[in-house]
Amino acid sequence: MTEFRVRPIGRVSSELASRADAPRQGDEGAPDAALLIDPEASAGLAGLAVGDELIVLTWLHEADRAALSVHPRGDRDRPAQGVFTTRSPDRPNPVGLHRVRVLAIDGASVRVSGLEAIDGTPIIDLKPVLGAIDER
User: Fold this and answer.
1) HSE toward the beta carbon, residue 126, CA cutoff 13 A
2) What is the secondary structure of 13-78 as a DSSP string?
3) pLDDT tens string 33-75
């Protein structure tokens, strides 16, 4: 198999210090957080505006990469399922997918709402949420 090299473009700054502190999804009580974009990637923020919705792709660096089955939402009363049918952070390639709204922009720091990633989580990419076809 081919291997891929992914390099972070920044890190998450959040009050969430551990996986135990984090809600399962951003819309389940995640605090506001900051995306701290590295200087060499900050030019990629040009055109970003307050109110924009983004998909933040992260590398879930504390994940169990050997996991192929999990109990959904960590509930042992539910039968185990394959990780590819869940949003579990534990998976062979632990890419996190987070839909957020931009609250403020200060240089290379982007304040967002609804990010359940823990402090220090590497950011691997940002993508805009697509609107209707005629708005693209």
Assistant:
1) 28
2) E-S--SGGGS-SSGGGTPPPEEEEE-GGGGGGGTT--TT-EEEEEEE-TT--TT--EE-GGG-TTS
3) 999 999 999 999 999 999 999 999 999 998 889 888 888 777 7
Query: In this structure, which topology does domain 10-130 adopt according to CATH?
Result: Elongation Factor Tu (Ef-tu); domain 3 (2.40.30)
Name the pTM for this structure.
0.86
Given phi > 0 = left and psi -120 to 50 = alpha, else beta, which region is 116? alpha
| Residue labelled with tokens 């940002």 | 126
